[in-house]
Design a protein that fits this description.
- The chain is of the alpha/beta class.
- A six-stranded mixed β-sheet has the order 5-4-3-2-1-12, with helices on one face. A six-stranded mixed β-sheet has the order 6-7-8-9-10-11, covered by helices on one side.
- Helix 13 runs parallel beside helix 14.
- The longest helix is centred in the last third of the chain and has 31 residues.
- The chain is globular and about 75 Å long.
- It starts with a helix and ends with a helix.
């Protein structure tokens, strides 16, 4: 029975970690979730550690990404397998029962998360640190370390708890070291929360959620009806006099350019709005590379001014592999024909240039009127682009003060996917100390301040997915550049260095000393 129980420990770790993510949100469980896994791999050879780590990974990723089956069952299986194989790197390190383990083990976890952020276009979804997106004090450290720092602290505490119950020598040292670091993170977090961030004129923004069923989005019979839904909700939001109205990804159900009729409808709407309009749509774009200048499609965002002038276009840069394009299709042209789901053939953008919005305010002093002209720089991400830290950071480096995410998570049905997606947006806000606005077709459309707190969302009777409506909020632009914005993933690369020293160099040096000592004897 003891052996059977020990073989079930990896699954127990995976289940505990699943429960710390949406929709369960028992985030305290993440601080002990890995303890069973550590017990399951202790004192085992490498080949015997690989299976428990793989079982844990399949359990966790299979559970937390189960909503992907709504898109593709084979794709879900393949993704879970790839992520689980990457996690097997965690089995490479054999703890030396030294206090340095409490640094090396978390660093190895960060290395794995860094790899899956950049390898094969990357998929940094369900990062361990994301489980704490509601733990506002803890996540403040992300403005220095990124989400990787929160993952590091979680693994460190898990290892400290494991070492304590393992009853190894100096077991209190492990636990005290982990708790001391955690306490420091809390102190830093509370200090950051207390700091004021409202030092400039706010922008009033309305986020519109149309709740268009996925099967109707591209049905030409529903085009006019979809436009009317967004128009009507937008006109309702005008009662609150927003400066900017935001529609979700591909919310305008027409291919742009598609004739003067669509443009005239937009102009009529803008004339009755007196606000900027930012929306997503698919447009035709001449592809200047690889296709002989042929016209291809781009997943884009458009900004129109109050006067109906097109202020800017952003073409999605980081496309979804096997969703918006087929990787290496020029080498494997037959691959598309063997997939049971339709795959787009989109061309990607090549720059992260913020949009500019102008707002004029007047102050009547009796004898005179003071007018102030303020420009706001807004960075736009489309779909899952906000899960990649480098995109938000690049916008911040380009001077963006507000980040907007246009998305459509209707693909995944009534699942935890939209809530997990919000986790990434929360961390992008903290990392770069700027607010994030989300406009999603079926939810979650919300406003996140620079501390990572969700301050408002589109909801009805407490339900924020698969409902239509709008939410309006004052948004204070980010007014300072964080250490993470300036220096990026320095912390993650420091962890890579620690792993190289602890896992590879240190054993090599010890073996060399042993060899020299034996030869001398």
């Amino acid at each position: 029975m003891r052996q059977i129980f020990k073989r079930l420990l990896p699954m127990l770790s995976g289940i505990l970690l699943i429960l710390s993510f949406p929709n369960f949100n028992f985030e305290p469980l993440a601080w002990i979730a890995l303890v069973p896994l550590f017990f399951s791999v202790e004192d085992k050879a490498l080949k015997n550690r690989l299976l428990p780590v793989f079982v844990f990974s399949v359990t966790f990723y299979g559970g937390v990404l189960c909503w992907l089956v709504n898109v593709s069952v084979p794709g879900t299986v393949a993704l879970v397998a790839v992520l689980s194989l990457a996690n097997c790197l965690f089995a490479l390190y054999v703890p030396k029962k030294e206090i340095t383990d409490i640094i090396i083990v978390p660093s190895l976890w960060v290395l794995i998360e860094l790899i899956r952020t950049v390898l094969f276009t990357g998929f940094p979804w369900a990062v361990l640190g994301h489980s704490q997106f509601l733990n506002i004090p803890v996540i403040q450290i992300a403005d220095i370390t990124g989400a990787y720092g929160v993952s590091f602290i979680i693994v460190m505490v898990n290892y400290g708890v494991y070492a304590f119950f393992k009853k190894r020598q100096k077991r209190f040292h492990y636990l005290i070291a982990a708790l001391a670091v955690l306490l420091s993170v809390y102190v830093y977090g509370y200090n950051q929360i207390k700091r004021p961030s409202h030092t400039s004129t706010p922008l009033k923004v309305a986020a519109v959620q149309g709740n268009i069923p996925q099967e109707k989005k591209w049905d030409t019979r529903y085009q006019d009806n979809i436009f009317n839904i967004y128009r009507d909700i937008t006109l309702q939001s005008m009662l609150e006099k927003p400066d900017l109205v935001i529609w979700p990804e591909t919310s305008l159900p027409y291919l742009i350019p598609s004739g003067n009729s669509v443009h005239k409808r937009l102009l009529r709407l803008l004339e009755s709005m007196d606000a900027y309009l930012l929306f997503g749509a698919v447009r035709e774009r001449v592809d200047e590379g690889g296709h002989g200048g042929a016209s291809r499609l781009a997943n884009s965002a458009f900004l129109f001014s109050r006067d109906g002038e097109l202020e800017g276009i952003y073409d999605k840069v980081h496309l979804v592999p096997f969703g918006e394009y087929v990787p290496f299709e020029r080498f494997f042209p037959w691959f598309r024909d063997h997939i049971d789901k339709p795959i787009g053939d989109f061309v990607s953008g090549n720059s992260f240039t913020p949009f500019r919005i102008k707002k004029e305010t007047s102050v009547d002093l009796g004898e005179s009127i003071i007018r102030e002209m303020r420009f706001y720089k807004i960075g736009v991400t489309i779909c899952f682009e906000d899960i990649f830290p480098y995109i938000a950071r690049e916008y911040a480096r380009q001077g963006a003060e507000i980040l907007v995410n246009l998305t459509n998570d209707a693909w995944f049905g009534d699942s935890s996917a939209p809530y997990q997606h919000v986790q990434s947006s929360v961390f992008r806000a903290v990392e770069n100390r700027m607010p994030v606005i989300r406009a999603a077709n079926t939810g979650i459309s919300c406003f996140i301040n620079d501390k990572g707190r969700i301050i408002s969302s589109v909801s009805r009777y407490g339900i924020d997915t698969f409902v239509d409506g709008y939410a309006c909020s004052f948004i204070y632009p980010g007014n300072k550049r964080s250490l993470y914005t300036v220096h990026g993933d320095v912390f993650a690369y420091l962890c890579v260095f620690i792993v190289c020293v602890g896992v590879f160099i240190r054993p090599l040096v010890k073996d060399l000393k042993y060899f020299r000592g034996s030869r001398h004897d």
